[in-house]
Amino acid sequence: MAFVPHQPIPSEVQECISDCQECGSICQETINYCLQMGGKHVEANHLRLLIDCAEICQASQNSMLHRSQFEGAICGVCAQVCQHCAESCAEFTGDSQMQACAASCRRCAASCRRMAEKMPAAAAAM
Description:
Strand content: under 5%
Largest sheet: none
Helix content: over 70%
Mean pLDDT: 91
Number of helices: 5
Number of strands: 0
Shape: elongated
CATH architecture: Up-down Bundle
CATH topology: Substrate Binding Domain Of Dnak, Chain:A, Domain 2
CATH class: Mainly Alpha
Low-confidence stretches: 122-126
């Protein structure tokens, strides 16, 4: 196997990695918050979205860090899940934790969408 020298991660990819890390973290925090709040906060579909969002953000982050051939496809799925999670969290008007989670999910969705659009060949590899 030939040695491939390390190439720095482009700034736009680094930004997406950072957005995924932040979104995954706030979704994890929000899961705990929702469990404490109870009521509508713990509805199954809402909690599943938070869990899915946290996990796909981690997968997306990892795929970009190791430059997976599937990173475009993974980022595309991440964008979709983050958008749905943002919409679910945004329904909790007047709740600063939920609004912060929605904002982070929107940012991550936009960032991952840009990455997915820049890597169409990776998505086609599936």
